[in-house]
C-alpha cells in the first residue's frame, strides 16, 4: 500500500498514469479536477461557483479543494491513494500533510513527471475523455480503436474539456509555474521527490513510476 502524489503541469500524463495504477494496484485516484467537474455537472452551488474560474484556467480556492480531499481521505483503501492534480499550492501541501497525520497515514512518494512545455499544447488540444468511465484518449497518440466509442466501457459519450484550449492552457501553465512548481523544491527538501521522464511512451512512464513505488 502506498500513497503517492503525481506532480506535473497540465498534460504531463498524471490522469493517464493514475488510471493505470488504479487498475494495476487497487489504488484510489483522487483527482480534484475530476471532483470539481463532477460538482459542475451535477449543478451544486460550489460547482456553479468554480465554473468560470476553471474555464479561465485559474486555480480554485485552497479551502474548496482541501475540503474535497478531506471528505475522501478517510475512506479505506487496500492499495493507497493517488493524488492527481492535488496539492497545487504550498498551502494545500501543508494541509495534506496535516490530514495524513490526523488519519494515521503517510505520504510514500511524490513523482514529478518531467515534460517539455512544447509538447503540452499538442497533448492538451488533442485530449478527449470518456464521460462514462473517464478513460483518457488523444487524437493522434492514443485514439479509440473504433471512432466515437470508448475502448474500455463502450460508451459513445466522448468529451473534450472546456479548458483544453490553447488560450486557457496559457493561464493554466502560468498558474502551474507560479503556484505549483514550488512544490518540487518543497518535496525535494523533505526527501520525498522522485522524477520520471514524462516524455517517454505511456508504458515506459508506467514502468518508471512502478520502480519508484516498489523501491520505497
Ligand atoms: P494530465 O492528467 O497530467 O493533465 P493526461 O493524462 O490527461 O494529463 O494526458 C494529457 C494528454 O496526453 C492525453 O490526451 C493523453 O492521452 C496524452 N498522453 C499522456 N501520457 C502520454 C505519453 N507518455 N506520451 C504521449 N501522450 C501522452
Ligand atoms: P485538472 O483536471 O487537474 O487539469 O484541473 C482542472 C482545473 O480544476 C484547474 O485548472 C483548476 O481550475 C481546478 N483545480 C483542480 N485541482 C485543483 C487544485 N488542487 N487547486 C486549485 N484548483 C484546482
Account of the 3D structure:
There is one protein chain. Helix content is 48%, strand content 15%. Strand 5 and strand 6 form a beta hairpin. It is built from nine helices and eight strands. The termini are close together. The structure holds adenosine-5'-diphosphate and adenosine monophosphate. The site of adenosine-5'-diphosphate has 19 residues, from helix 1, strand 6 and helix 9.
Task: Lay out the secondary structure.
Layout (H helix, E strand, L loop, with lengths): L3 E4 L6 H12 L2 E4 H10 L3 H12 L5 H12 L7 E4 L5 H13 L6 E6 L2 H9 L1 E4 L5 E3 L19 E2 L6 H15 L1 H8 L3 E5 L4 H13 L2
Parallel strand pairs: 1-3, 1-4, 2-3, 4-8
Antiparallel strand pairs: 5-6, 5-7
Major sheet summary line:
5 strands, parallel
Structural class: alpha/beta
General form: globular
Distance between the termini: 11 Å
Please provide the ordered H/E string of secondary-structure elements. EHEHHHEHEHEEEHHEH
The number of distinct β-strands equals 8
How would you concisely characterize the structure shown here?
The protein has 216 residues and is α/β, with parallel strands linked by helices. The protein has nine helices and eight strands. It has a five-stranded parallel sheet with strand order 2-3-1-4-8, with helices on both faces. It has a three-stranded antiparallel sheet with strand order 6-5-7.
Amino acid at each position: 500500500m502506498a500513497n503517492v502524489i503525481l506532480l506535473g503541469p497540465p498534460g504531463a500524463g498524471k490522469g493517464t498514469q493514475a488510471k493505470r495504477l488504479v487498475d494495476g494496484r487497487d489504488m484510489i485516484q483522487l483527482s480534484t479536477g475530476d471532483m470539481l467537474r463532477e460538482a459542475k455537472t451535477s449543478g451544486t452551488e460550489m460547482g456553479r461557483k468554480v465554473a468560470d474560474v476553471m474555464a479561465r484556467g485559474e486555480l480554485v480556492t485552497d479551502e474548496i479543494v482541501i475540503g474535497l480531499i478531506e471528505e475522501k481521505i478517510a475512506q479505506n483503501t487496500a492499495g493507497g491513494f493517488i493524488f492527481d492534480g492535488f496539492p497545487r499550492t504550498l498551502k494545500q501541501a501543508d494541509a495534506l500533510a496535516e490530514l495524513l497525520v490526523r488519519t494515521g497515514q503517510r505520504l510514500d512518494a511524490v513523482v514529478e513527471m518531467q515534460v517539455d512545455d512544447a509538447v503540452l499544447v499538442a497533448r492538451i488540444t488533442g485530449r478527449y475523455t470518456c464521460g462514462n468511465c473517464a478513460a483518457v484518449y488523444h487524437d493522434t497518440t492514443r485514439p479509440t480503436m473504433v471512432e466515437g466509442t470508448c475502448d474500455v466501457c463502450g460508451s459513445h459519450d466522448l468529451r473534450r474539456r472546456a479548458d483544453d484550449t490553447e488560450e486557457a492552457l496559457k493561464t493554466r501553465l502560468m498558474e502551474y509555474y507560479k503556484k505549483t512548481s514550488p512544490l518540487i523544491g518543497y518535496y525535494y527538501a523533505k526527501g520525498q521527490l522522485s522524477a520520471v521522464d514524462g516524455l517517454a511512451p505511456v508504458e515506459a512512464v508506467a514502468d518508471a513510476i512502478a520502480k519508484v513505488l516498489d523501491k520505497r
